[in-house]
Amino acid sequence: MTYKLTIDQKPAYLHVAVTGSNSGENVVRYMEEVIRECTARRCFRVLIEERLEGPRLGTIEVFGMVSKGSARFQGTLEAMAYVDLNAEGDVMRFAEDVAVNRGFPVKVFPALGAAEEWLLSLPDADTQNPHR
């Protein structure tokens, strides 16, 4: 099994749940799909609920993926709330630091409720930004 995305369009954001096997390749592929969906729906705030199974990715692999992804997708999203329900240790906080330091608007949360609350607390933004 690779991965499966389930997308629920909310009034203020997309809620994307991803299930499947945990691998660097799957993370890169599903993130590209998430960005395409956000762009197609002109919804630039997203809550990602990751439920990937299997061994966690290492710090070096996470650093490389986040660095490349942040550069590639910078300017496409207003906000990304990220919940990895199978996370272990501090790797997700590290990933957040790497992304934020590169100008990518992501925040990691331990639970869905906190992630949704954060997204809904953000000020309204111009979703018709011509640079997207």
Number of helices: 4
> What is the CATH architecture assignment?
2-Layer Sandwich
Approximate strand percentage: 25-35%
CATH class: Alpha Beta
**Distance between the terminal alpha carbons, to the nearest Å?**
33 Å
Low-confidence stretches: 127-132
In terms of structural class, how would the helical and strand content be classed? alpha/beta
Q: What is the share of helical residues?
A: 40-55%
The outline comes out as: globular
**CATH level-3 fold name:** Transcription Regulator spoIIAA
Q: What's the number of extended β-strand segments?
A: 5
Total domains: 1
The radius of gyration computed from the alpha-carbon positions, rounded to a whole number of angstroms, is: 14 Å
Widest sheet, order of strands: 1-2-3-4-5
What number is the mean pLDDT? 90
State the order of secondary-structure elements, H for helix, E for strand. EEHEHEHEH
Largest sheet, strands/sense/barrel: 5 strands, mixed
What does this structure look like?
The protein has helices at 24-41, 59-73, 91-101, 112-121, and strands at 3-9, 14-21, 45-53, 79-84, 106-109. The chain is an alpha/beta fold. The protein has a single domain (3-109), classed as 2-Layer Sandwich (Transcription Regulator spoIIAA), CATH 3.30.750. A five-stranded mixed sheet has the order 1-2-3-4-5, sandwiched between helices. Helix 1 (24-41) runs parallel beside helix 2 and helix 2 (59-73) runs parallel beside helix 3. The radius of gyration is 14 Å and the shape is globular.
